[in-house]
C-alpha cells in the first residue's frame, strides 16, 4: 500500500527532561472554565454545563514564536494549563480520571476575537477564530510522575512585562478530573489527546513584536514572541 502523497508528520510536544516526544492525537479546549473570564465574556458561569471546541493537532507549536494570522485585526491571548493524556477510554469515572493523565504543560489559546464575535453573532462554529495555523503555542510537557496533579497554584500571563491575566488553578469551574470524565462521555478519548483547560480573566489583544510570558505554578514558564 502506498500513499498518493507523503502524509504529514505527526504533531508532537516536547517532554521536559527527555529526548522523547509526545505524539498529539486531538486537541480539546474547554470554553469559559474560569468564572471571571466567563463574566468578562458576558456569560453567567453558574448556569452553564461545560462545553468544548477543538483545535487541530498541528496548531500546537513549541518554537517560541506566534505568527500573527491573516484576516484579523484583534488577536487575543488566553493562557491555559494543558493536560496530556497517556491513555483514554469512554465514560471514565471521575475518581479514576487522573490515572489517565501523562502530564501537564502551558499553552496559549490564541484567538481571532473579531472573527469569533462575528461567528457568535451568526450562530456559526468557531474554527476560523480558534483553529488557525500556530494558534496554540505550547511549552514542554512535565510528567505527572514528577509533579503530581496540580489542584491549585498561580496561572498568569504578561505582555511586554505587563501583567494581563492572573488567576489560580483552583478557580476552574470544572476541575481536571471532572473535565476528563465529562469529555469521555462525548468522545472516545485516547493516548495523545490534549486538553486545554480554560483561561482566567484578562484576555486581550497582542501586536507584532509583543513578547508574551506565561506561567503556571508547578509546571514552569513559557515565552512566545508575536511576529
UniProtKB/TrEMBL annotation:
Keyword entries, A-Z: Hydrolase, Metal-binding, Pyruvate
Fumarylacetoacetase-like C-terminal domain boundaries: 27-227
GO molecular function list: acetylpyruvate hydrolase activity; metal ion binding
Record has Repeat as a keyword: no
Keyword Endoplasmic reticulum: no
InterPro entries with a match to the protein in the record: Fumarylacetoacetase-like_C, Fumarylacetoacetase_C_sf
Gene3D superfamilies noted in UniProt: Fumarylacetoacetase-like, C-terminal domain
Highest taxon listed in the record's lineage: Bacteria
Pfam family name, one: FAA_hydrolase
Protein name: Fumarylpyruvate hydrolase
Lineage: Bacteria, Pseudomonadati, Pseudomonadota, Alphaproteobacteria, Hyphomicrobiales
Amino acid at each position: 500500500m502506498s500513499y498518493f502523497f507523503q502524509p504529514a508528520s505527526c504533531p508532537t510536544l516536547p517532554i521536559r527532561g527527555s529526548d522523547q516526544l509526545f505524539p498529539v492525537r486531538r486537541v480539546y479546549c474547554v470554553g469559559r472554565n474560569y468564572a471571571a473570564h466567563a463574566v468578562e465574556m458576558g456569560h453567567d458561569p453558574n448556569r452553564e454545563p461545560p462545553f468544548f471546541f477543538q483545535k487541530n493537532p498541528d496548531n500546537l507549536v513549541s518554537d517560541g514564536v506566534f505568527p500573527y494570522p491573516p484576516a484579523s485585526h484583534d488577536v487575543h491571548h488566553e493562557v491555559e494549563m494543558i493536560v496530556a493524556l497517556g491513555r483514554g477510554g469512554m465514560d471514565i469515572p471521575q475518581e479514576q480520571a487522573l490515572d489517565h493523565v501523562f502530564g501537564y504543560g502551558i499553552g496559549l489559546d490564541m484567538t481571532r476575537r473579531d472573527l469569533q464575535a462575528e461567528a457568535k453573532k451568526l450562530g456559526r462554529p468557531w474554527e476560523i477564530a480558534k483553529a488557525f495555523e500556530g494558534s496554540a503555542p505550547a511549552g514542554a510537557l512535565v510528567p505527572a510522575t514528577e509533579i503530581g496533579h496540580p489542584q491549585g497554584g498561580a496561572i498568569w500571563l504578561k505582555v511586554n512585562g505587563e501583567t494581563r491575566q492572573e488567576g489560580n488553578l483552583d478557580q476552574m469551574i470544572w476541575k481536571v478530573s471532572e473535565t476528563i470524565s465529562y469529555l469521555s462521555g462525548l468522545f472516545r478519548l485516547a493516548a495523545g489527546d490534549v486538553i486545554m483547560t480554560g483561561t482566567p480573566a484578562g484576555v486581550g489583544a497582542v501586536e507584532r513584536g509583543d513578547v508574551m510570558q506565561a506561567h503556571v505554578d508547578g509546571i514552569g514558564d513559557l515565552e512566545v514572541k508575536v511576529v
